[in-house]
Amino acid sequence: MKRVIIIPTFNEAQNIQALMDKIHSVLPEVYILVVDDSSPDGTGDIVSENAKTNARISLISQEEKNGLGRAYLYAFEKVLADPDVAEIAMMDADFSHDPKCLPAMFGELAHTDVVMGSRYVAGGGIVGWEFWRRLLSFFGNVYCKLVLRMPVFDATSGFYCLRADALRLVSLSSMDASGYAFQIEFKYFLWKRGARLKEFPIIFTNRVGGESKISGHIVSEGIFAPWRMLFKK
């Protein structure tokens, strides 16, 4: 049985080496798949050098910047092509998601299909965010819950583990959210296809290095994307 951790990157040269080392310190047997979005800072080069000496590290290097959603879709196609892959994790590259949570989150897959790191359940929280970002995130998730009626408190979280069989329930070709709305769309499609979802409390820590990817486009996409999802099959 293989476990694969998918990490999308754009300009994460400050973090990616330390993150891969940390992941393998807590889960030595896992495979790490980095999808680099044509980073000009050499992120892909760092991963490529590691892959030469470590068979458990691999890289998908996109020739142009295609966004978070497309990066994950490329990774899903590669992962699902391997019948030995049984469990998959998804996380950010900037240490806002603590690799120490991975063993417990994978362990929860014995009882459910998808384990989502959540900032908004008992035991979860956020460290290092400005007040406006906390408000934006909190009310954004309340908005998603009201529109989609999905039983999830943290629909925008990018940290989760799932069974490969659950991923196969989703029609990847029908997904088109390009930014962080992808996280909402992916969870919604999993839920609508009957996957069992469970939230796992995490402490989200503001990025260790590099620059935040938040933008006006990301915010506007998050407003309109839930309504588009309602009318998809």
Could you tell me the strand content as a percent range? 15-25%
Fourth CATH level, the homologous superfamily:
Spore Coat Polysaccharide Biosynthesis Protein SpsA, Chain A
CATH class: Alpha Beta
Q: Kindly state the percentage of residues in helix.
A: 25-40%
Biggest sheet: strand arrangement: 3-2-1-4-7-5-8
Largest sheet: 7 strands, mixed
Rg for CA atoms:
16 Å
Here the CATH topology equals Spore Coat Polysaccharide Biosynthesis Protein SpsA, Chain A
User: Could you spell the SSE succession in H and E letters?
Assistant: EHEHEHEHEEHEHHEEH
CATH-defined architecture: Alpha-Beta Complex
What is the number of E strands?
9
Q: What's the structural domain tally?
A: 1
Outline type:
globular
Number of helices: 8
| Amino-to-carboxy terminus distance | 32 Å
What's the arrangement of secondary structure elements?
Elements: E1 2-9, H1 16-26, E2 31-36, H2 43-53, E3 57-61, H3 68-80, E4 85-90, H4 102-108, E5 114-118, E6 125-127, H5 131-148, E7 160-163, H6 164-167, H7 181-192, E8 197-201, E9 203-205, H8 216-230
Parallel strand pairs: 1-2, 1-4, 2-3, 5-8, 6-9
Antiparallel strand pairs: 4-7, 5-7
Structure description:
The chain has a 7-stranded mixed β-sheet with strand order 3-2-1-4-7-5-8, with helices on both faces. The chain has a two-stranded parallel ribbon with strand order 6-9. Helix 5 runs parallel beside helix 8 and helix 7 packs parallel to helix 8. It has helices at residues 16-26, 43-53, 68-80, 102-108, 131-148, 164-167, 181-192, 216-230; strands spanning 2-9, 31-36, 57-61, 85-90, 114-118, 125-127, 160-163, 197-201, 203-205. The longest helix is centred in the middle third of the chain and has 18 residues, at 131-148. The model has no long low-confidence stretch (mean pLDDT 91). It has 233 residues and is of the alpha/beta class. Helix 1 links the parallel strand 1 and strand 2. It has one domain: Spore Coat Polysaccharide Biosynthesis Protein SpsA, Chain A (Alpha-Beta Complex), CATH 3.90.550.10. It is globular and about 50 Å long.
